[in-house]
Amino acid sequence: MASSHSTRPLTLLDLPNEILLEIFKSIAAPALDILESPRAIRRTHRPNDAHLKTIQATRLVCRRLCHLASPLLVPVLDVQINPQSIDSAEHLVQNAQIARGVRLVRISLSCRPADVANSMIRYRDIQEMVAQRLFEHCRNIARSEKDTDISRAYSAASEQWWELNTAWSSGYENDWPSHLNKPLRVGWKSYHDLTGDEVDVFWSNWLLLEDGWAKYREKQQEQQALFEDGLLANRLAALFCRIPSFPALALIDRPDFPLDEYFNSPGQTCPGGVDVTRLANDSALHQLMTSSHTWPWLSELNPPTEPLASPQLYWTLPTSIHEMGGRIDGLFLGPLAIENDFEGLHHHVGENPDIVAWKDLETAFRATRSVVVDFENCEQDYHPDGQDRVALEKYLGVLLSNPQLEHVDLDFESFIHNYRRDWDFDPSPAFIRLGSVFSAACFVNIKSIRISFVTFTEGQLGNFFCQLASCSRLDSMSLEWVAVAKGGRWARPLDILRASYAKLRLEGRNPDILFVGLSGGGFNNLLYSESCGEGDVWWIRYDKNRVPVYEAAGKFVLGRDEINPLIALESAEQFARAKEEFYGAEDSEAELESEDDQAEYAEADAPEAGSVSEDSDPEASDPDDPESEFQAGYRLYMECLIGGHPV
């Protein structure tokens, strides 16, 4: 037996690579997943400083640990459209070990428009908007915190932002009354009745704005040069293709300086450790004043900015990646475009569409398995119309024609028009009409699908549901705030979806389904309603209990109930109206005392053969067919009621 002093103690290097890798993963920054955490894609991905330093130090120990830890260093590669950011990313992916760990390439398409850089007034308008938002934020927190140290700090910050905003808004001679044709310092003193010290403060704030504008112009010219040389898409594609793990691609419009991340509660950490109460006097203010802008932010300007060049990357980047031999495994799309700026998408549509270009784009998306479109916080109250809508439908149609798609999550909330203003219990006119895109999509290998804030016609919805019968790998489907256009009904599409799910169950599949906020086509003006604090939830009597009608629709589709709730509700509404007329309004909620009375009332209420009620749809109730769809549903409802099974 060997002596104890000759036994070498175990060290970290004696552990197997698999265990070491798990240890390093536990302290490394997690990669962002476009499916599991789509809302986090836009936010700053900043790893814990202590964990990052641990990974960096581990790489310096020896070659073996460097090989294991390097892929965990940069799980998310952020790229801004400026020379410095692109050069840095290109240098980073030249290290094969670091590039091997990149799981997401996140390219921000936020920009600095030329008309803003060339106009002091336009630039000043944007900075005024920023200062006003920060002033209101600090003032609101100061008021909510009462008389505390926090309230005093935010109150002082609000005064600083007010001083900046006041100086900027009154510091341009062309905005002054015509009789004040004087130099800035003299004009301020006479117009605002300021003392000499107050004029000095105004002057320093004005010089701050001029300095910011000069540096903003420099950065805009650098960015513009990248688009004008025609090589931007190729540089980004080459960078993407150097990553061997086939990462996901996210196109977002997150600015260089994410202002919204400073709108936090007191005590929370701000980006870079800069507290919002000190931002007006910090070096970060320079970064804020020269930052790029998001597209919805630019859409608030009056007049709107000139068309942006960055949306063209939605077209040129995927095709360039494909031409260089790469593939996009997952695709995340932030805002597609803003009003008056769809040129990046519709320069190939119109009277003479470029068929070859569309084929190239379709080929570029051929290997994509996951697609996420998420417009959170990008509301612009704009309904794409005309050529804009054609371009959007064409682009999404190409994207969803890929038979390899497995996961689809499409949220079009930003295109809601007149949100909650003109709904009149029917939000279908407010949602964007993209039903034709989904009815023609190819979902043969789809596993999960989620659609939000879209309006279909009844036929488009039926075609879409019919496709699902061939989706042998489907695990889940979610329809949230999906509407049927006026004139259509949900009843028939639900029957089709039920048949599709029945076919999948016969094949051994049992996919989940979630309905939220369905509207139009029978879901509006239902018989029962109840407030839940956040709005009205419609209910239906089901198995002697009251459950949400969306849940009842889900049970019907999954085969757990034999009654289509839409047909039952339409019949129940007709039944309630007739009962109210017969018994009087005050007794309309009373139940009939016996089955004989119910049967007698049902016989009296049943329409004569060949008759059409005033409230029935002529297309849905054929007077020559006594067993029309509505009459069949009504008969089914009455049979259930008479049989003692209230719907």
UniProtKB/TrEMBL annotation:
Where on the tree of life does the source sit, at the highest rank?
Eukaryota
Task: List every stretch annotated Disordered.
Answer: 585-629
Record field: compositional bias (Acidic residues): 585-606, 614-628
The molecule here is called Uncharacterized protein
